[in-house]
Amino acid sequence: MVEETLVLIKPDGVARNLTGEILRRIEAKGYSLVDIRLVEPELSILAAHYAEHEGKPFYEPLVEFMLSGPIVAIRVAGDRVIEGFRMLAGTTDPTLAAPGTIRGDFGRDWGLKVQQNLVHGSDSPESAARELELWFA
Ligand code: RTP
Ligand code: MG
Protein backbone atom coordinates (compact mmCIF):
# COMPACT_ATOMS: atom_id res chain seq x y z
CA MET A 1 0.00 0.00 0.00
CA VAL A 2 1.86 3.08 -1.24
CA GLU A 3 1.41 6.09 1.02
CA GLU A 4 2.91 9.54 1.29
CA THR A 5 4.08 11.20 4.49
CA LEU A 6 5.47 14.57 5.51
CA VAL A 7 8.96 14.48 6.99
CA LEU A 8 10.44 17.64 8.46
CA ILE A 9 14.11 17.99 9.32
CA LYS A 10 13.79 20.41 12.21
CA PRO A 11 16.13 23.40 12.73
CA ASP A 12 18.52 21.36 14.90
CA GLY A 13 18.96 18.75 12.17
CA VAL A 14 19.64 21.34 9.48
CA ALA A 15 22.00 23.36 11.73
CA ARG A 16 23.94 20.23 12.66
CA ASN A 17 24.42 19.27 8.98
CA LEU A 18 22.43 16.07 9.41
CA THR A 19 20.22 16.64 6.34
CA GLY A 20 22.29 14.31 4.14
CA GLU A 21 22.43 11.57 6.79
CA ILE A 22 18.67 11.70 7.33
CA LEU A 23 17.93 11.65 3.57
CA ARG A 24 20.38 8.73 3.23
CA ARG A 25 18.44 6.70 5.81
CA ILE A 26 15.10 7.43 4.12
CA GLU A 27 16.47 6.37 0.72
CA ALA A 28 18.33 3.35 2.12
CA LYS A 29 15.04 2.06 3.51
CA GLY A 30 13.66 2.16 -0.05
CA TYR A 31 11.39 5.19 0.26
CA SER A 32 11.24 7.78 -2.53
CA LEU A 33 11.76 11.51 -2.26
CA VAL A 34 8.84 13.06 -4.19
CA ASP A 35 9.40 16.72 -3.31
CA ILE A 36 11.78 18.61 -1.07
CA ARG A 37 12.18 22.25 -0.01
CA LEU A 38 14.17 24.33 2.41
CA VAL A 39 11.74 26.60 4.25
CA GLU A 40 11.60 29.27 6.90
CA PRO A 41 7.90 28.88 7.72
CA GLU A 42 5.47 31.57 8.77
CA LEU A 43 4.16 31.33 12.32
CA SER A 44 0.72 30.55 10.88
CA ILE A 45 2.01 27.33 9.28
CA LEU A 46 3.55 26.16 12.54
CA ALA A 47 0.41 27.07 14.50
CA ALA A 48 -1.67 24.98 12.09
CA HIS A 49 0.89 22.16 12.06
CA TYR A 50 0.98 21.91 15.87
CA ALA A 51 -2.67 22.86 16.55
CA GLU A 52 -3.21 19.61 18.51
CA HIS A 53 -0.56 20.73 21.05
CA GLU A 54 -1.85 24.28 21.63
CA GLY A 55 -2.14 24.97 25.36
CA LYS A 56 0.36 22.28 26.40
CA PRO A 57 3.38 23.45 28.43
CA PHE A 58 5.83 22.64 25.64
CA TYR A 59 3.80 24.35 22.88
CA GLU A 60 5.37 27.83 22.97
CA PRO A 61 9.00 26.66 23.32
CA LEU A 62 8.28 24.17 20.52
CA VAL A 63 7.02 26.86 18.13
CA GLU A 64 9.91 29.16 19.09
CA PHE A 65 12.38 26.33 18.40
CA MET A 66 10.75 25.60 15.03
CA LEU A 67 11.18 29.29 14.10
CA SER A 68 14.88 29.29 15.07
CA GLY A 69 16.25 28.35 11.65
CA PRO A 70 15.54 26.75 8.30
CA ILE A 71 13.61 23.47 8.05
CA VAL A 72 13.76 20.89 5.28
CA ALA A 73 10.28 19.67 4.29
CA ILE A 74 10.11 16.41 2.34
CA ARG A 75 7.25 14.55 0.66
CA VAL A 76 8.21 10.90 1.01
CA ALA A 77 6.46 7.96 -0.67
CA GLY A 78 6.59 4.24 -0.02
CA ASP A 79 4.81 1.17 1.25
CA ARG A 80 3.47 1.90 4.77
CA VAL A 81 5.83 4.88 4.89
CA ILE A 82 3.81 6.73 7.55
CA GLU A 83 4.43 4.02 10.14
CA GLY A 84 7.79 3.12 8.66
CA PHE A 85 9.27 6.59 8.91
CA ARG A 86 8.18 6.88 12.54
CA MET A 87 10.10 3.65 13.20
CA LEU A 88 13.17 5.14 11.48
CA ALA A 89 12.79 8.31 13.59
CA GLY A 90 12.43 6.56 16.95
CA THR A 91 10.34 7.61 19.92
CA THR A 92 9.82 11.32 20.70
CA ASP A 93 12.29 11.63 23.59
CA PRO A 94 15.82 11.23 22.17
CA THR A 95 17.09 9.82 25.47
CA LEU A 96 14.64 6.94 25.17
CA ALA A 97 14.80 6.46 21.40
CA ALA A 98 16.44 3.18 20.42
CA PRO A 99 19.98 3.20 19.04
CA GLY A 100 19.77 2.74 15.28
CA THR A 101 16.98 5.28 14.97
CA ILE A 102 17.56 8.89 13.86
CA ARG A 103 16.59 10.30 17.26
CA GLY A 104 18.39 7.51 19.15
CA ASP A 105 21.62 8.02 17.25
CA PHE A 106 21.70 11.82 16.96
CA GLY A 107 18.95 13.41 19.09
CA ARG A 108 19.71 15.44 22.19
CA ASP A 109 17.53 16.14 25.20
CA TRP A 110 18.16 19.68 26.41
CA GLY A 111 16.42 19.29 29.76
CA LEU A 112 13.82 21.99 30.28
CA LYS A 113 13.96 23.14 26.67
CA VAL A 114 11.89 21.44 24.05
CA GLN A 115 13.28 18.12 23.01
CA GLN A 116 15.42 18.79 19.99
CA ASN A 117 14.59 15.57 18.27
CA LEU A 118 15.67 16.36 14.71
CA VAL A 119 12.71 15.15 12.69
CA HIS A 120 8.96 15.16 12.39
CA GLY A 121 6.92 12.47 10.68
CA SER A 122 3.14 12.46 10.15
CA ASP A 123 1.41 10.07 12.56
CA SER A 124 -1.61 8.91 10.50
CA PRO A 125 -3.00 9.06 6.94
CA GLU A 126 -5.25 11.97 8.01
CA SER A 127 -2.30 13.92 9.50
CA ALA A 128 -0.19 13.18 6.42
CA ALA A 129 -2.83 14.55 4.04
CA ARG A 130 -3.37 17.64 6.19
CA GLU A 131 0.34 18.33 6.73
CA LEU A 132 1.36 17.76 3.09
CA GLU A 133 -1.29 20.25 2.03
CA LEU A 134 0.04 22.73 4.60
CA TRP A 135 3.74 22.47 3.73
CA PHE A 136 3.46 21.88 -0.03
CA ALA A 137 0.47 24.09 -0.85
P1 RTP B 1 6.61 14.91 15.76
O1 RTP B 1 5.14 15.32 15.79
O2 RTP B 1 7.54 16.08 15.75
O3 RTP B 1 6.91 13.89 14.69
O4 RTP B 1 6.95 14.14 17.10
P2 RTP B 1 6.08 13.12 17.90
O5 RTP B 1 4.84 12.78 17.16
O6 RTP B 1 7.02 12.03 18.29
O7 RTP B 1 5.74 13.97 19.18
P3 RTP B 1 4.46 14.86 19.52
O8 RTP B 1 3.84 14.30 20.76
O9 RTP B 1 3.59 15.07 18.32
O10 RTP B 1 5.14 16.23 19.93
C1 RTP B 1 5.55 17.13 18.93
C2 RTP B 1 6.92 17.66 19.27
O11 RTP B 1 6.85 18.46 20.46
C3 RTP B 1 8.05 18.35 21.20
N1 RTP B 1 7.72 17.84 22.53
N2 RTP B 1 8.25 18.30 23.62
N3 RTP B 1 7.41 17.11 26.92
C4 RTP B 1 8.04 17.86 26.02
O12 RTP B 1 8.85 18.70 26.33
C5 RTP B 1 7.72 17.64 24.63
N4 RTP B 1 6.84 16.76 24.17
C6 RTP B 1 6.84 16.89 22.83
C7 RTP B 1 8.95 17.40 20.43
O13 RTP B 1 9.78 18.18 19.56
C8 RTP B 1 7.95 16.61 19.62
O14 RTP B 1 8.56 16.03 18.48
MG1 MG C 1 3.46 14.25 16.41
Fold blueprint:
Blueprint lengths: L1 E8 L1 H5 L3 H10 L3 E8 L3 H7 L9 H8 L4 E9 L1 H9 L12 H5 L12 E3 L3 H11 L2
Which class of secondary structure composition applies to the elements? alpha+beta
Strand order of the largest sheet: 2-3-1-4
Q: Sketch the major β-sheet.
A: 4 strands, antiparallel
DSSP strand (E) fraction?
15-25%
The succession of helices and strands, N to C, reads EHHEHHEHHEH
Number of helices: 7
The end-to-end distance, rounded to whole angstroms, is 24 Å
Q: Can you give the helix content as a percent range?
A: 40-55%
Number of domains: 1
Q: Any idea what the CATH architecture is?
A: 2-Layer Sandwich
Question: What value does the average pLDDT take?
Answer: 95
The low-confidence parts are: none
Bound molecules: ribavirin triphosphate, magnesium ion
Per the CATH scheme, the topology name is Alpha-Beta Plaits
Rg for CA atoms:
14 Å
Query: Would you count the extended β strands for me?
Result: 4
Query: For this structure, what is the CATH class?
Result: Alpha Beta
| Morphology | globular
| CATH superfamily label | Nucleoside diphosphate kinase-like domain
